[in-house]
Amino acid sequence: QVQLVESGGGLVQAGGSLRLSCAASGRTFSSYTMGWFRQAPGKEREFVAAITWSGGRIFYADSMKGRFTISRDNAKNTVYLQMNSLKPEDTAVYSCAAGRSHYTGYDYWGQGTQVTVSS
């Protein structure tokens, strides 16, 4: 069992930056692929980024490449999402998730943290 708690969301102006954190409980954190997803009001949840257990493989949604960076610190049981050059369309609830593989899906989800980008 893995429990996930996100933090770091807030209100930022367009062009600004935020760093989200996702703290995980459970001794097997380091064995999971970790992902970030977001959901804007009235829209479906969309994939943002993912990182394998070792950090050896990283995946990004095309619209986030070059602006967002995912990283993890297995010693701290934490995964991060650095978001730069934020746009109003990045406004959403951002959630982290844990799974055995990015390709087979995610089993555990956090509650999410709100990110609001003003124009």
State the gist of this model.
The chain has 119 residues and is mainly β. It has strands at residues 3-7, 10-13, 18-25, 33-39, 46-51, 58-60, 68-73, 78-83, 92-99, 108-109, 113-118. The protein contains no helices and eleven strands.
Blueprint (SSEs and pairs):
Layout: E1 3-7, E2 10-13, E3 18-25, E4 33-39, E5 46-51, E6 58-60, E7 68-73, E8 78-83, E9 92-99, E10 108-109, E11 113-118
Parallel strand pairs: 2-11
Antiparallel strand pairs: 1-3, 3-8, 4-5, 4-9, 5-6, 7-8, 9-10, 9-11
Report on the structure:
The radius of gyration is 13 Å and the shape is globular. The mean pLDDT is 94. The strands form two sheets. Strands 2, 4, 5, 6, 9, 10 and 11 form a seven-stranded mixed sheet that branches. It starts with a strand and ends with a strand. With 119 residues, it is mainly beta. The protein is built from no helices and eleven strands.
Average pLDDT over all residues: 94
Total number of strands: 11
Q: What would you report as the Rg, rounded to the nearest angstrom?
A: 13 Å
Taking the sheet with the most strands, its summary is: 7 strands, mixed
- Low-pLDDT parts are none
Multimeric state of these chains?
Answer: single chain
Helical fraction equals under 10%
Write down the overall geometry. Answer: globular
Total helices: the number is 0
**What structural class do the secondary elements suggest?**
mainly beta
Strand content: over 45%
